[in-house]
Write a structure and sequence with these properties.
By secondary structure, the chain is α+β, with helices and mostly antiparallel strands. Among the domains are: 123 residues, no CATH class; 132 residues, no CATH class. 44% of the residues lie in helices and 17% in strands. Strand 1 and strand 2 form a beta hairpin. The longest helix has 28 residues. It starts with a helix and ends in an 8-residue tail after the last helix.
Length: 377
């Protein structure tokens, strides 16, 4: 990938500037977000972006990147000066990532096979430096499976937990996520915003209540509703664990879709419980063990439009964002962050994301330039 990266950074740089709005626009963003406080040897935002990409996508060390910049683009820097510049570039690069995401969303057409509400698969992925030094970073993202593109990306430290609030779910769209995202307050916000959700839940991840009796929904009740069937459904309400007397909230109505897991999924869940017991010294409750062969999904999608089977199929799309993360990390060699410094690690990750999004733009442009093949009769 090294030769291709050098060619991109040298001969095709003007095309990259054009994609991002031109050199003056890039320079304005760099100054606005504190990446160019003093223009000395690095005189523009475009130069800074080129250095960040060179450091990230070529696999060069700081010293080699500094030598490359002098020989190839005439920017004379030592590795210490380059380090100082790149450490301040994070916010600037994050803005460019958002800009490229918006452009990609505008240029990629939705699949002709899907005419329903926008689907947003929400998940997160961790990045860590050498020997986990310098802390870790979490990439929060939403992915549109009908177009095969990320719709939102946010890079934070691991102190920022996974949340649907980071998914940028627009009104009318459907958020699909795993059990880490089953938080009543986030689901309530989506419902109030006119958005939908289909989120896997654990028996203890949310407070599920029977709307008629007002009692907590137990694993026994869920298993009884399922019986010998492959699927079932319960009407439930959710309440927050802590409520304010000054601002009490009504129970949130939802559908609880119950699916019998296949043998492979059951074995995986049982193994996960054993690992949690061994590694984290956790003591699983009897309810948790009883639910190992069952998948439960919380949703506010209307029952007259979305059957149990359709919701199950919708949730199964979630693997696509995991595949997108794996593709991103493998294709752009992002599995191992070389920087120990947290700010340098952030710059390295964001610069790689910019390279990935630029490649996606190029791929889309090529596809759109090729005329459709005539159908054979």
């Amino acid at each position: 990938m090294e030769n291709e990266s050098q060619e991109l950074l040298l001969s095709d740089w003007g095309a990259i500037e054009d994609v991002l709005g031109g050199a003056s626009a890039i320079d304005g963003l760099a100054r606005e977000h504190g990446a160019l406080k003093r223009a000395r040897r690095v005189r523009s935002g475009s130069d800074l972006l080129r250095l960040a990409l060179a450091y990230a996508v070529t696999g060069y060390s700081l010293r080699t990147t500094a030598a490359w910049s002098e020989a190839s683009v005439g920017i004379d820097l030592c590795d210490v000066s380059l380090l100082s510049r790149l450490r301040e570039a994070g916010d600037f690069l994050a803005v460019l990532v958002r800009k490229l995401l918006a452009q990609t969303a505008e240029t990629v057409d939705a699949s002709t096979c899907w005419h329903g509400a926008p689907i947003r698969l929400v998940d997160g992925s961790l990045f860590s430096g050498p020997e986990r030094k310098g802390g870790q970073h979490r990439l929060h993202a939403s992915f549109d499976p009908t177009r095969g593109v990320f719709t939102s990306i946010d890079l934070t430290g691991t102190h920022e937990g996974e949340s649907l609030a980071r998914g940028e779910i627009e009104p009318g769209a459907i958020a699909v996520a795993d059990r880490n995202y089953a938080k009543t307050h986030a689901l309530r916000d989506l419902d109030a915003n006119g958005s939908f959700y289909a989120v896997r839940a654990g028996i203890r991840s949310v407070r599920l209540m029977d709307p008629l009796s007002g009692e907590r929904v137990t694993a026994k009740a869920i298993l009884a509703a399922l019986g010998e069937s492959q699927s079932a459904e319960l009407a439930v309400t959710m309440i927050e664990a802590k409520t304010s007397k000054k601002n009490p909230r009504l129970p949130l109505k939802a559908r609880l879709v119950i699916l019998k897991a296949n043998e492979a999924a059951t074995r995986y869940e049982q193994a996960r419980i054993k690992t949690s017991r061994r590694v984290h010294k956790a003591t699983p409750t009897q309810e948790t063990q009883d639910m190992a062969g069952v998948v439960i999904i919380l949703t506010n999608l209307p029952a007259d439009l979305w059957s149990i089977d359709q919701i199950a199929a919708l949730y199964r799309l979630r693997w696509q964002i995991e595949l997108a993360f794996k593709t991103l990390k493998s294709l752009f060699e992002m599995r191992d962050v070389p920087a120990k410094d947290p700010r340098m690690a952030r710059t390295w990750i964001l610069a790689n994301l910019i390279a990935a999004l630029l490649s996606m733009r190029l791929s889309v442009a090529i596809q759109q330039a090729i005329p459709p093949r005539a159908s054979s009769k």
